[in-house]
Design goal:
Chain lengths: 336, 336, 336, 336
């Protein structure tokens, strides 16, 4: 069986989830090759390009899409499997931004302090060697960090007709900013509108857990995904799966509510997959789970709850779709 | 140089940090072999031993200690290096407990729900094979989990003359409940009173991040630590170090404040070790750091901020004391 | 000068802020007589009409509008002065709702508890006597409470093209659910789109601070407002003014961030009106301010920060517009 | 029946709740005349006395006591009725303090900002005219504020043998910093140790709700209380009563947990007094209650939940003890 491959290089980007006509409609199982711009729309290119000067609110965090999935109806799940995420340039950028970040007063954690200084860091990106290079701004210090490309933002049109800025994470996905969204991961979203209307963007060469300063190593990306559909299987919140772990996400404030959502979902998922009652699943997740921060800076904070798939025995999520998508990805990569 | 080794098998346990006379006074560099009881004082031994019946508040979470360190004065740091943590029995126990845990109404997240059911799980522990076995209570499901022994509780007498229940984590350490407190880790605490007065307990055969249901795989432990002193180097909050990572901890509510404390401390530590200004360190930690949950159930929640030591080049924390303690541990284990 | 009076009885309601064409366009200073439906769309009429059965998500919390204001441009403030709020029926209703409220597990404060029971309370409303009567459901207890009619929801189209469910409060206003939104109060909102696009609904015969169970004494209302415009005076967050107090609002989670936003805004407002530096204003607000909860149940929580106008001397907010609107209201009521 | 009156002018103050021998033991019903020092120990007397220079941590917030109550046993409630609270000097003081307050980075809401400036404000206090005068520091602005004297700190020895700094509020009371603790109010505390061990201090000439900048109009006080005992009636958290309202308090973080605790307690209290089931009481409190902030700056935040006593009909809390204590107070004041 041949793989259907389509390409999406948008002429214009979207800045929201919801309220948009699809740029593209694909059948379930289609490979989509696409390009994404960085969260600054490519406008921050030197250390002197302060984002507050070169970017115009609300035109931040452009996303590529939406992509409609044929047959996707409310109540279904769409799967987005990341095949490849490749920085498109030999540089990337990170910044502080006034009143944004985890260790600064913000517009909601409102305080009387002046904003922290706005500063830009340019990273050299070497895809072949798999590294990006950090240059300190106030001293000679430099260090190479491994590339670990990912997308901060991926999701679908929200429920209830809402139109949400692309910088917000929520039950529809969006700007979750977790490093788990790397190649090899499948993301599952609830379908809220016909076609689901998937968009993605905000590529990161790498990102620490929590995205503490508010931005990662931001880069335009050449990305390949496979898009698929699971009828009648809408999760309450975005779920992720890679070869080793099942993952539930929660995006909310305060951070303990993001944690609660993600753990609550993982407990329910575990109970369903292993035929456990909810208290037994609660116990198992409590001893075997991992709980890294995604972001602690966006309009909602994101936590991830992870369970090793080793515990599942023969049980598979969504009837083994992740393995099938991995296979599609392998065939695509072999043929490319 | 020979290693000084002392043994501590307490006749009675403490239930608080602060307000106690030391059971033992040791010189810096001393190896202490000690035994700890589980968080239920060993009273929960069958699935019918509901903790709310067999345990008496506030006699929960017994700790072994305090151990005074000669020469420790306010302003110093004491180091507790975990050499070995070995479950003392062939069983361990975990439970839900009324109004305690992350996915239940509690006395502070007060709600009108009845308590979730109280349930006990007994685990088989096989130290030789390195596993503990989970038995579901409402079905036949069983699964082995790897042993990863750790101490939920370790700390020193608090500042300001406070006496705090051993179930509370804070700037003095205490019940931080992070899986990072395993053998091979060095923990650094600020000294608040002469002698520092170190206590530890709450051994876990393993624990998921967040300790979601409120208890881990709880076990009495045979534990070996090396205790040491770094003059004038008191951290603001407990810090951890293993062979791969520097770690800062924060314990507070809401969870984002625990996150902020830990990241703020790690940024400052990184700045100091690498000679960076604080914004450059903020940037580096943002891209390279990890941020797992410790606990999201105790009176304060605990987050851990981790930085790979690979980034440090030749810089070492506290003049390389972790490596020296590792060496002491190796010699001790070789001679034992 | 005669007062312009228009009437708005919508054929259909809106369920969001943003993304709607105006039903009506008015000149600044116009009196608008309008009708609003209750938050259940009038579908809960007996104690057996459980909202989860008779209401369809997301068709909750209907609002009347939008009303466009001529000349309103981004950067301006629109003022909505409440002249009269009168319950339209001789009954009103309140309910618990599964996973909604301050003392229950919710979808974000996710827990393993079953939902609390869903229950409906019908209140008798006597506008002439100014009371509504509470009937306990599980005993014979009854008591009269004073009518204190208000609107839970009032606001404008959000910034950045967002479309937000009418049940969410935020910088655009929306479902703030504070009892301060009673007759005699002027509310100021930032204009985000041409015409501002004001909507309102969610009438309450009365409401406790915090709206603890999630709903107030919900009623359809006959309401009269005066709509006005202050060029170039957009506040960051909705502000309120009555004869006695200036009020700033903040809507966010956790609740301390809602508090911070409201206090931060009030400090800045006070500094500006009295010519104080920000620390002097911080001090004055700290000693003279009030800080009641609005709601602690909605998607964002709302706090109100109040300053007695007695402290202001001759200073007036927005050039005395509140007094002028009061005058317009008096003339309207005299002529009606 | 004559009133027993004793006097307590401590030679030294305490800085903690718990861990102290009583200075005084009184019979239930005794009037205690006492003096308290301000939260700075009287060391801040001019605008140049910056607290970080003239005060020594942890010797802040001195309290007068403890006072033991004869016959008080764990499980009982002690009542502290405030008869009179009178500023002892003709000046009072308020300050910002580095990393303390609601609109500043703190040690737990840790951020990279430098501390806000530390500033002292001196108030003129005129007890006869019932006013205190605010003087801006950076301009000529002055204004008189009404005196509304209260105690920020009052409580008993904590449970579980804990010793807690007097600056912390909790289930034992402590530094709740609510303006409701004024003359005419009765406060009820759970007894945790024999004698209860009541202490109080931190007098405020007045305080805004939330105590936003971290300190109120701080003053030494001449205070008169009546101390009483209600056998077997320990509340879970401190409760207050005045002539008009029943009040429950909650002290926790995040602020919504303080809110939840206070509302949960008030719902239970209302259910018990009116013979309602918990859902009916939840409903009644939701419509009739008030919810002002106490403090949003201390180690725990405090919220107050208030219910008008008008709703209670003939029901009285604690068998009418508040009315009896008011009577005692009247007789005392008449005879003084």
């Amino acid at each position: 069986m041949s793989i259907e491959v389509v390409r999406l290089d948008p002429e214009r980007y979207a800045y929201a989830f919801g309220g948009q006509e699809p740029l593209l409609t694909v059948r379930p199982g289609t490979v989509v090759e696409l390009s994404t711009e960085d969260c600054f729309g490519g406008a921050v290119r030197t250390v002197d390009d302060l984002p507050s000067r070169v970017c115009t609110f609300p035109y931040l965090n452009p996303v590529t899409g939406p992509i409609a999935v044929e047959g996707a109806e409310p109540g279904d799940a769409v799967a987005v499997h990341f095949v490849d995420i490749r920085p498109a340039r030999d540089w990337a950028v990170s910044t502080t931004f006034p009143h944004f970040g985890a260790l600064t007063a913000t517009h909601t954690t409102a305080m009387l302090h002046d904003a922290l200084p706005e500063r830009v860091w340019l990273y050299d990106v070497d895809v072949d060697r798999g590294v990006c290079r950090f240059h300190a701004r106030s001293s000679e210090f430099e260090v190479e960090l491994p590339l670990d490309p990912m997308h901060g933002t991926v999701g679908v049109a929200p429920a209830a007709g809402e139109v949400l800025m692309s910088i917000s994470p929520g039950a529809h996905g969006g700007n979750m900013d977790t490093p788990e969204l790397r190649a090899g991961t499948t993301a599952y979203f609830p379908v809220n509108v016909p076609g689901a209307l998937i968009s993605l963007g905000d590529g990161h060469c790498r990102q620490g857990e929590g995205e503490v300063c508010g931005t990662a190593v931001e880069a335009a990306m050449s990305t390949v995904v496979v898009v698929d559909l699971v009828k009648g299987a809408a999760p309450a919140w975005p779920r992720l799966e890679n070869d080793d772990h099942l993952m539930s996400t929660g995006s909310a404030r305060p951070l303990e509510d993001a944690f609660r959502i993600s753990q609550h979902d993982l407990v329910g998922w575990t109970a369903q997959l292993l035929g456990l009652d909810v208290l037994d699943a609660y116990q198992l997740v409590s001893q075997a789970g991992l709980a890294p921060a995604g972001n602690v800076v966006d309009t909602n904070y994101t936590m991830v709850a992870k369970l090793p798939k080793l515990l599942l025995g023969n049980a598979t999520a969504y009837d083994g779709i992740h393995a099938r998508l991995r296979e599609t990805a392998s065939r695509y990569l072999a043929e490319r």
